[in-house]
Fold:
Amino acid sequence: MLNRRIFLQESGIAAVGLSMVPGFLQRAAMAAPSERQKTLVVIFQRGGADGLNMVVPFGDPAYYRHRPSIAIPAPGEDPGAALDLDGYFGLNPAPGPLAPLFKDGHLAIVNAVGTPDTGNRSHFQAQDFMESAAPGDKTVSTGWLNRYLASSPDPEATPLRATAIGTSQPKALRGSAPALTLGTLDKFGTAGASPLFQTVYQQESNSLLTGAARDMFEAMKLLKEADPQQYEPAQGVNYGRANPGSLGSALMQIAQLIKANVGLQVAFADVEGGWDTHQGEAERLPPLLRDFGRSIAAFHRDLGDRMEDVVVLTMSEFGRTARENGNGGTDHGHANVMFVTGGQVNGGKVYGKWPGLEPEQLNEDRDLALTTDFRDVFAELLVRHLGCDRPGPVFPGYSIDANRFAGIVEAGG
Structure:
């Protein structure tokens, strides 16, 4: 007899609030959307990506003094030189496919952004604080995306309204609102899973599980109709290493959900491994950035005009030290860089006041200082892209003021 634990594991569901499943999914499964809707896609670069070598401040002479061996050359004839963005900042050439998006006004960059919690250099704690959007407050156990979902209930929402692609539920989606974490779409949505659910119906006498299984079976139909095993990206689109667990694979599956009109509003994907570049950064960072840039650019091309309804946000828990260390790498830093791309994004600009890299301008004499609180970026995307009219509950202990919005997204977009 299949028990509840096996049911969840074998159906491909890593996390879902079962206590809320029956009523919610019973309503939602009956109302698959037929119209396009706004979607926010969040990408987390776990490990502390080096923003200074992703978006290169070649106009700041201190950058080259701090990094004599790992600095990216200023734009010029060097094949490894930065790609000029605005005469002061340049894009690392490794994620080169992102440069046309910036040039065409579809990619914005937010620099010197992060948490005001200056003394925190722990990966796990910094990630928790960023995902809870409550820096310094260890009592907040829910995530900012889940609190948005809970504060903006939608009686017509489907079970796929909030979906993460991965092996475990990110903290950003933890909370009272239902959210799914799927390893792969085909594992959850193929016809091969149907006998499992039918067996559950026949063998399980627990009324809660029976109700949940019935509702989940209806939810599964949404993915089966999308036929994930047969998905073909748009002509000429290459997601690169689209193996399970890669960013390309995750974004390809998110693109499929968006195209299938299954009601996806919030999506989450992790980019784990390699970003903690304490040594050998010149060799370790480029392949990560190549995959990063290629995957996001492929996602943008794959969706085509549907990107008008989509915004992609990238983030990492903190940046790296301004100075390189003795191992050809960088250590845990402070402020960092975010990428924001989408059809309604006011791109082609590097946002955020640049604090400078001279010793007296650094945070604690070692890191890029913060000039933009990451919660202001989150709030702007929720308000101006997803139409959130009550951002206050999403950010406990922080007052949201639209006057601090940078203008990354068109109002009403």
